[in-house]
Each structure stands twice: as C-alpha cells, then as structure tokens.
Design brief:
The structure is a single chain. By secondary structure, this protein is an alpha+beta fold. The protein folds into two domains: 192 residues, 2-Layer Sandwich (Ribosomal Protein S5, domain 2), CATH 3.30.230; 172 residues, Alpha-Beta Plaits, CATH 3.30.70.890. Helix content is 41%, strand content 23%. It has eleven helices and twelve strands. A hairpin with a 4-residue loop joins strand 3 and strand 4. Helix 3 crosses helix 4. It is globular and about 60 Å long. 51% of the residues are buried.
Length: 380
C-alpha cells in the first residue's frame, strides 16, 4: 500500500502499515451471536492498510481496489451511501471515540486480496486494520478482546450488520498453525493446534456473492431471538440458544413457528458439533472432524436455510473426490465459499474435477484458495 499511498497523499511524516487477515470458519456457523461456540482460523488473505497522522481532524481514505476515495471528519457520525466501504472505517472510529479513546486525523490507503462477498470476512479485516492504525497513530492502549468488541459494535450499530464477534476476534487473535476455539459469551478462548499432517483446508469460492446487510441475515437473528423467548417462557434458565438442550427445544416445538424451530435446532446442534469437533482435533481424528463438517452443512442447508444451489453443488462435487474428508458452507451464507478438508495428494484432482464440473454446470468461475492457519492482525 505504500506506493499508492504516496501517490495519493505525498511524502513526509511517519507512516505505519497494518495487515489484518480474513478467516475461514471450520465449525460453528451463526452460533456467535447466539452466545455459543465457534472454531475459525485466520488465513493468509487479508487487508493491508497504510496510514499517517494529520495535523487536523480530517480523515482522507483511498480504497486502492476500487480506485475511489472519501473524506470525512474523524469526529463525524454521517454515513456515506456513495462510498459504502468507508462506513466500516467511519464505524470503527465512531466506536473508538464512544469508548473514550483519543483519535487523530489520518490519511490512509487500503487494499487486499480477500474477495468481497465470499464469506471470508473482508469487512472484519478492514475494521481491525483500521483499529490498529488508529491505535498506533493516536498512541492509546487497549487489549485485543476489547478492541474486537468495539469493531463488532461498529458493524452492528453503525454499519447495521448484526454480526457476532467471531470475525473480529479471530482477525485480531488468530495464531499460525492453530484454530481458535472461542466461547462467544465469556470470550474465553483456546488456540487449538491443527495437526493436519497430509491434510489441508481448501477454500472454494462459488462466485455467488452474498450481501449480508441486505440479505436475510438479520432475519435469521430475529428468528433466533423469537426462539429464545419461547424457550425462556418454559425454561427460565435459557438466556440464549447456547443454554438450550435438544430436549428443551423439542418440548417447545409446538409453541414455535416451524421456521423458528428449525433455526433454533441448527444452533443447538451446531454448538454440540463445535465441542465435538474440538475434541476430534485434539485427538487427531480428522475423519470424525470431516463427518461433523458434512453434518454442519446439512444443518445449515435444511434447518438454517442459508445455503444456495450453487454452494450445495460445490459440496456435492467435493464429496465425490477421493480424499475429501468433509465439505461445508462457511461464513454467513447465501453464497460465498465452502471449506473442504482434503488429503494433500488429492488437491489437484479436487481442483480439476470440482472446479471444471462446477463451471460447466453453472457457468460461474469458482476460485480455489489454500491457506495454512495464519497469525492475527499486526503492524508491519
């Protein structure tokens, strides 16, 4: 980012650069905003941001990938419909300021190799990169979990996307060689070693972009809230879906809208899959982990209703390749990517069979990414 930054803003002053990774979620979809358990890993793809402090209270921002720029006051609260990408920057600065943290004006340029709308959390990477350069230039201190919560607040309350904290948390706290097992209620976390041996996680982008803010994501969250209300009326100890047992859910079946019941069933069973999946990884039982991935996809498709025909086709084609242990949709859904646990010698056959047949049957151009578990956001 340094070269486009200097072209746009000129020489002079102290320049800082941050890199924030995207993520792929291995298990635990839509459980984060239900105070449940998730198991993501940071990936090598991400967002890089270069910035320099200004003597005034203005922010000038350049999106290198789109070739567009925006300017706004660091203390501002306005949204920008013309440059919606700038709302993620504005939102982070808004949340930091509301938390009582000092801010300075900035010139900044950012870009990256995360495909937008792929479910790999490009928005969280942009948020955490913004938070890191703002912290460095203003010189305040804040621990990473609290910073993740402020970035989540920016997306929830400023951007209007009611996401959980998983994406921002793993973007900041990821560790190379590990998945991040996170309790989204307490924010207790554990770095789980990924002893993959001859296996790897292959990420396949369907070419179908999802637009979560404009999609049914917020509707799913409202359905989960409705389910908690029905459960709590009979079982007062249920404060969130992570508290509900399958038996309690079944007892309330007749008191829920059928769609609400199915949404809740996905969350309750998905939390169990995360816990079982973590144990499988600890024991090195990759075959069992792959089977849990398959079950997770079926639950997201049939109960939570966040898959789509193209993604289902990718999963079907992947499972037909020898050496694929598991395949599932990852991310918010309604398009985006699949994550596949593949034995390394089968990767080329996966690439040839899955991508070519998918392209033939859909006319779309899928993309394949392979990334080892990466470190979280950092200054460079």
């Amino acid at each position: 980012m340094r070269e486009p930054f200097l072209r746009e803003f000129g020489e002079g002053g102290r320049i800082v650069t941050a890199h924030a990774p995207g993520r792929v979620n291995l298990m635990g979809e839509h459980t984060d905003y239900n105070e449940g358990f998730v198991l993501p890993m940071a990936i090598a793809l991400g967002v890089r941001m270069t910035a320099r402090a200004r003597p005034d209270r203005q922010v000038r921002a350049l999106s290198v990938d789109t070739g567009t720029s925006a300017a706004f006051p660091v203390d501002g609260e306005a949204h920008d419909a013309e440059h919606p990408w700038s709302n993620y920057l504005r939102g982070v600065l808004w949340a930091l300021r509301r938390a009582g943290l000092p801010l300075v004006g900035m010139d900044l340029a950012f870009g990256g190799d995360l495909p937008q709308g792929a479910g790999l959390s490009s928005s969280a990477a942009l948020e955490t990169a913004t938070a890191l350069v703002a912290r460095e230039l203003a010189g305040f201190r804040i621990d990473p979990p609290r910073l993740a919560l402020l970035c989540q607040q920016a997306e929830n309350e400023f951007v209007g996307m009611k996401c959980g904290v998983m994406d921002q948390f793993v973007s900041l706290m990821g560790r190379a060689g590990h998945a991040l097992f996170l309790d989204c209620r307490s924010l207790a976390f554990e770095q789980v070693p990924l002893a993959l041996g001859e296996h790897l996680f292959a990420i396949c982008h369907s070419g179908v972009k999802h637009a979560l803010v404009a999609s049914e994501y917020n509707r799913r969250r409202a359905q989960c809230t409705a389910g908690v209300a029905a459960l709590a009326a009979r079982f007062p100890g249920v404060k969130a879906l992570r508290d509900a047992t399958p038996a309690q859910l079944e007892a309330c079946h007749g008191e829920m809208d059928p769609d609400v019941f199915r949404r809740c069933r996905h969350i309750v069973t998905e939390n169990s899959r995360v816990l079982e999946g973590v144990e499988a990884l600890r024991r090195g039982e990759l075959g069992r982990f792959g089977a849990l991935m398959d079950a997770s996809h079926a639950s997201q498709r049939d109960d939570f209703g966040v898959s789509c025909p193209e993604v289902d086709l990718l999963v079907e084609l992947a499972r037909a390749v020898p050496g694929v242990l598991g395949a599932r949709i990852t991310g918010g859904g309604f398009g985006g990517c699949t994550v596949n646990l593949v034995v390394r010698p089968s990767l080329e056959r996966f690439r040839e069979d899955v991508l070519s047949e998918y392209r033939r049957r859909t006319g779309l151009a899928p993309r394949l990414f392979v990334s080892a578990p990466a470190d979280g956001a950092r200054l460079e």
